[in-house]
Amino acid sequence: MNGKEITLMAMEPEKPPRIPVGLITGGEWYVNQAGKTFAEIKSDPDALAKVFTDGYRKTGQDFIWTGAGILNYPIHFLGCPVEDDSSDSPKLLGTVIKSLDELESLDIQMLTKNPLMQGMIQYHRLVADEIGKECLIMTTQWGPFTVAARILGVEAMMMAAMENPEKLQELIQFSSDLCWAITEPVLDHPDIPCMNLSEPVASCDVISPDLFRRFVKPVLIALLEKAKAKGKYTSLHICGNSTPLLSDILDIEPTCFSIEAKVNLKTAKEILGGRVCVLGNVSPTGNLLSGTPEDVIREGKECLKAWGDDPGYMLTVGCDFPKTVPLENVMALMSLKEME
User: Fold this and answer.
1) Each residue's pLDDT tens digit, 282-336
2) The CATH number of the domain where 227 resides is what?
3) Owning domain of residue 21
């Protein structure tokens, strides 16, 4: 069985012949490995796709997140300046709007008709054409709450939650529509079977569980349902300590939930096991960054031991990892495919 087939079994969840091992996120790592900058490749779908397919060929992971590293570009195409002249993930230099009074100025067509955005949609398809039958591809975008925070700013979002919640919900709905406008044409490709949404701003390190349940949870349910209606799998990543949200994840019902190292894997299994496939949770800034390959292998084995023999688990990093992570440490993680 190839990596895609093994990963699909884990997502069902059925017991695969081995645990799938892969890399979530990692866009700037792939770009750095290629010796490129984002500015150099953002307008060339073939070059962008080559960075990711070459990264896959180098590491041999079972699953990959296409779109990692370029998640801020849709916000840029709405009008926010961006800094992208290195292999660091493109950095937004401000916000799109200053207040919710400007909400009506937002236009999704500014995004969907942008030639660079169309090229980035095409890039996902090119990756799928090249490796989509052997590696499971999850197309990834910021989730609606994080998109809204990028458009307005986190501080203004928090104030709006108290002072103007109805208008804030309009912005979040716009952001959900934006996410779908980008993702739906990508999911039309038969070898892109899964949509991932990453919600760092929805972390319990940023907002309370009550705010999550009011502003984030309903729109995630609705957006994931759209992907499911197309016959696709769904994945959700929330940064930080998402332990207080694990019961909510059962209500949201993604196929997969990606957790950080702050979340105890045994606790995640107790709550989600058998119902939601769990991804995680090797620390992206611990042994992977500064340890030895032996340290990485040991940490990976600890994750495997914590999960045990039950199905519904994929071994991966807990969140995005620095571009300076040594290749030999990435390969040490990948070597766990043979050591189980």
Assistant:
1) 999 999 999 999 999 999 999 999 999 999 999 999 999 999 999 999 999 999 9
2) 3.20.20.210
3) 3-339
